[in-house]
Design brief:
By secondary structure, the chain is of the alpha/beta class. It has one domain. The relative contact order is 0.17. The longest helix is centred in the last third of the chain and has 15 residues. It contains four helices and six strands, in the order βαβββαβαβα. The chain is 21% helix and 25% strand. The two termini are 20 Å apart. The chain is globular, with a radius of gyration of 17 Å. Strands 1, 2, 3, 4, 5 and 6 form a six-stranded mixed beta sheet that branches.
């Protein structure tokens, strides 16, 4: 989202960013970065500022021009839509931001040539991955801390697909975030 400008609209919940032509798949090669691990140290501070300016925004879709994005994140990896899901948690002045982005690893050209909204394939886990981006007090949340936060929240894990804003976390989760903040602040950025 760092190269996308989201308008500051208080009641904007979802936005579709048409960023590809319908035949975009014919001119690309499968991405070489798909074989490397997801980024770990990505700073999302500019994204967090945009998210604060849109307090209701939960979903950003990236789609083909003229094609409505599919609303169900489980079907995004049909390779016609991908996007970002947004969750924010607040505790007084503290805010924890967790973004999940669907990253496509393969492009299936046949899928685009035979586009039929009714036959969208379900995600099979081989041609995509969900990548977590986090921010707490301007720093990323370490993977082990992120696991602790969700484990202490009861019933939810880091692989959520239901976005939300101004959500709550138990005190135990906020303490884990604070411990992680103290650790990550000492690390080279």
């Amino acid at each position: 989202m760092k190269n996308i400008s989201i308008p500051a609209v208080k009641n904007l919940e979802k936005i579709a960013v048409a960023c590809r032509r319908s035949n975009w798949h014919r001119s690309i090669k499968p991405p070489g970065w798909a074989t490397v691990a997801p980024p770990r140290g990505y700073v999302i501070s500019s994204t967090v500022a945009q998210i604060r300016d849109c307090p209701s925004l939960t979903t950003v879709y990236f789609s083909v021009y003229g094609v409505d994005p599919h609303p169900d994140p489980h079907k995004w990896c049909s390779k016609r839509t991908n996007g970002i899901l947004i969750r924010t948690y607040t505790n007084g002045a503290d805010e924890f931001v967790h973004l999940r982005r669907l990253e496509l690893l393969k492009v299936n050209w046949k899928v685009y040539d035979d586009y039929d909204e009714e036959t969208l394939d379900m995600c099979n886990g081989k041609d995509h991955r969900w990548v977590n981006y986090t921010s707490y007090k301007g720093y990323r949340v370490l993977d082990d801390i992120l696991e602790q936060v969700y484990k202490s929240s009861g019933g939810c894990n880091t692989e959520w697909t239901e976005p939300g804003r101004d959500m709550s976390l138990p005190e135990k989760a906020w303490k884990a975030l604070e411990r992680g903040f103290k650790r990550v602040r000492k690390m080279p950025q």
